[in-house]
Amino acid sequence: MKIYFPQWQGSGTGKTIKDGAKTILDYLNDPEFIHIPLSEIPAGKEGKKKHHINNYDAITEQLIQLKKSIDQAQPNTIKTIGGDCGLEIVPVSYLNQKYPNLGVIWFDAHADINKPCDSPSCNFHGMPLRTLLGEGSEHMTNLMFSTIEASQIHYVGVRDIDDLEQIRINDGAIYAPRKTRITDLVNTLQSKKITHLYLHFDFDCIEPNDYNKTYYQVSDGVTISDAENCIKALQENFTVVGSSVLESITTDTIELNPIEKIINLLMK
Question: What are the Cα distances from residue 208, in Å, to 12, 90, 248?
Fold first, then answer.
């Protein structure tokens, strides 16, 4: 199943995320991508906060539609063009239900593991992993097919971590090295008997000098070359059943040239 879901409301006011998703869709020019409609409930500067989550009503309305679409299709694999990271609670929880002990590889500069009540921004794209762990807002539980364990999470490129996020990472012994060695990641996954993977790819994991058309730019990131090599190694050693490309903001397909191989590896 291929999904185009340009959710931006999880970032607070970042409509550029919606535009960036459309650019990737245009680049791929693949009619197999189904479109998930966005909510018409006011969001962004006109949005309302509920349960410590900005734009809560708009987010939940459209995530319900995403869940219905996936549930009806019952796909074996999911590829998603997004959109902000908050949308991941639906495809990851679906594939986790389908494939026991799914490994979740989180290519991201940010940990995305805040509780709503702890989030400095109250933006949901910083909360998906905590939600997937079953430790987020109880009001979001019905949007998921299942919950995951901390041992399933493996970060690549994470370097902007809130203090309370770091405590959760430490308490769960979550794989989060400052610099990822591909062989170590592969060995870690194999030692856990993980055979199936979900590859979440937020482009801000990349070093901004390599690619800076992202919603956030965080220095000292993963090089494009290392990201490509890591994805290839994971695809060679495991069965990748889900992947996403998220939070690029360029509206010019030519500016996708540096990340073209990454998009193709994850979406084709």
Answer: 22, 29, 12
CATH number attached to the domain at 2-267: 3.40.800.10
Q: Are strands 49-50 and 53-54 parallel, antiparallel or unpaired?
A: antiparallel
- Nearest 5°: the CA angle 12, 244, 20 is 50
Kindly state the tokens that stand for 95: 């594939």
Domain boundaries, the chain: 2-267
Tell me the pLDDT band of 55, cut-offs 50, 70 and 90. very high
Q: What does each C-alpha distance from 111 to 2, 125, 140, 171, 230 come to in angstroms?
A: 25, 10, 19, 14, 19
Could you tell me the two tokens for 129? 């992993």
Model confidence, pTM = 0.98
The residues, any chain, with a CB within 8 Å of residue 209's CB and separated by 6 or more, are none
What is the mean pLDDT of the segment spanning 170-180? 96
Three-class SS state of 24: helix
Query: Could you give the C-alpha distances from 153 to 75, 191, 251, in angstroms and in order?
Result: 22, 14, 31
Q: Where is 67: in which H helix or E strand?
A: helix 56-73
3-state secondary structure of 36: coil
